Amino acid sequence: MRFLKSQSLKPRPISALLTKGGSIRCYVSSCRAVLLPRFGGPEVLELRPDVPVPDLKPNEVLVRARAVSVNPLDTRMRSGYGRSVFEPLLPLILGRDVSGEVAAVGASVKSLTVGQEVFGALHPTAVRGTYADYAILSEDELSPKPASITHVEASAIPFAALTAWRALKCTARITEGQRLLVAGGGGAVGFAAIQLAVAAGCHVTTTCGSQSINRLRAAGAEQAVDYTAEDIEGVIKGKFDAVLDTIGVAETERISINLLNRGGHYMTLQGEAAALSDRYGLPIGLPMATAVLLKKRIQYKYSHGIEYSWIYMRADSEGLHEIQRLSEAGKLNIPVEKTFSITQVREAHEAKDRKQILGKVVLELD
Length: 366
Prior knowledge:
The chain is α/β, with parallel strands linked by helices. It contains 12 helices and 18 strands. Helix 4 crosses helix 5. The relative contact order is 0.14.
């Protein structure tokens, strides 16, 4: 497969060669991509015209990206979060979500074809991310794009929705009629969780800022509590079968756990594995994080009779296809507040760092 560097920094058409091992060989392969050569502020991001594109493994898909979203994980990684894992691998490419068209497939890929519109998300530890004209994902990390939405809209959905899916469907295993509390429903993961739970027939209560109340109620939350103006413990009545805590500070953990039924599930997005590994190094930090998690699980099991979990996004083909179906039906969306060209990636990250844009930001690739 060949990409030619042009003055406009746009990729030329591609060709591919199948090897005896069943992989797709890329030769003289390069494309435009945003590299992170070192950790720091938005100024460290570098848009380069000729970043190598690796050969495709048999289960991999080459996607011509049309839109990629900016996730909180991207800005945190850029600043040094996860450095214990990623620093030896620099430079790397940020980005998890993507929406675009299939440009090439590995020999074992059966469900997707060249030219098909797709969307999906890479796992959190991927080194070659989606801030590139051509992204590489495994077959189970992709699904046909919902036909009723644009690439920009589609790119905002997968990573956040799959994180919520893992919490609700894989961990808590929510069922119709159960009660769910989402602490911090105004963010992308919280908003996705509300929609997934409503679609499953659950009764949803959420906490959020005042600016999000109407949107979350419209999404199906039966109660939306303004945490900036109301006493959460005084306003929320009854117990819950599951809590997804997207905030994850000590106060929201305490309140959430006290609102759970015995046998319920408390799930937080703020696991300590990366932070402890960054502080003490992987050999010490990772076992320490495991011990912290085990201690909390035992503690809350005996004191409250509940299950305690740290939640991370993982690829889930079944989940992504259900997310695609719900999105196609108009039952799941993540609003996009602003778009930037990929050439403005520094400006996009700066706007998120300064909290000038609270909603979802998407980078477009032409």
